[in-house]
Amino acid sequence: MTDAADPAEVEKARKLFRDFQDRDPAGSELILVGGLVRPVVALAVGAAVAIGYKAAGDGKDYYHEFENVRPTVFVNADGSQIYFVGGSYRFTDRGFLR
C-alpha cells in the first residue's frame, strides 16, 4: 500500500479480507484502484469465472465465460463496489471476447 491510501480504509479492507478468507492478505491481494476523488483500497476475492449482464442498449441478457487468464475480482473496503483487474479478455462492439 502507498502513502496515498487512507490508513483507516486499508485496515477496513484488511479486516474484510481476513473475515472472508480466514487469513491475512499477501502481495497484491490489497491494491489501490482509481477513484473519482482519490484512489480506493480494494481487496481480492477470487478469479472471475463468468459475467452475466443486461446490455444497456438492446436490453438483452448476455453471459460470457472467462477462459485462459481470468480477471481477478476485487471489491472496495466496504464491499459496495466490484472491480475486475487483469485477465485475457477484451470488450468490443460484440461484447466480451475471450
Notable traits:
98 residues, alpha+beta, four-stranded antiparallel β-sheet, elongated
Written overview of the protein:
The protein has 98 residues and is α+β, with helices and mostly antiparallel strands. The chain has one domain (7-97). The chain has one helix at residues 7-21; strands spanning 30-33, 40-47, 50-54, 61-65, 72-76, 82-85, 90-92, 95-97. The chain has a four-stranded antiparallel β-sheet with strand order 1-2-5-6, covered by helices on one side. Strands 3-4 form a two-stranded antiparallel ribbon. A two-stranded antiparallel sheet has the order 7-8. Strand 3 and strand 4 (61-65) form a beta hairpin. The chain is elongated, with a radius of gyration of 15 Å. The mean pLDDT is 90.
Global geometry: elongated
Intertermini distance: 31 Å
Report the strand count.
8
Q: What class do helices, strands and sheet pairing give?
A: alpha+beta
Mean pLDDT: 90
Secondary structure: elements and pairs:
Layout: H1 7-21, E1 30-33, E2 40-47, E3 50-54, E4 61-65, E5 72-76, E6 82-85, E7 90-92, E8 95-97
Antiparallel strand pairs: 1-2, 2-5, 3-4, 5-6, 7-8
